[in-house]
# Entry
Amino acid sequence: MTVAVELSMTQWKQLAFGLALLASLLFAVMALILIPRRITDERLLGTWQSDAERTIAELQANRTFNDEQLAGLRKLFGTLQITYVNNGTFTYQLTANDPAEKSRYEVIGRDSHSVVIREIASKPSELQSLGIEQSEISHIHFDSSDSYWIIPGMGTSREYFQRVR
# Structure
């Protein structure tokens, strides 16, 4: 037994509109499921400067340095500046005279005291050309709202950073 359904032009338009609305809703739900959402962490945003004083004090807690070595450490630490932006990019400058390098990052984890980011490098870092090995993943530990520390590369000591903006 077959039933013939006759629809008026208005009913056909209503049916078409309903199907288009359903398709749009289905597309929106699929987009929410399939498109990765960016996790951000407000604590990270801003400009940070390497804190030579705290970093060198940390190093001196485990080792004694002569004056020449301390002078070398003061040249090494305290010049790096990093700016994290909410759009998933960051810039860094090794010294004030160097051009700013831009890269992307994503927050892959966080807790009440730290954030873990993954750098998405578009080209090899200048730091790698200096022989400084960089991890693609960095665990940033906040010890105040304006200070954090990391253990760079394959190191065993902390490098401290102070918020400057």
Summary: The beta strands are 46-50, 81-84, 89-93, 101-110, 114-120, 137-144, 147-150, 159-163.
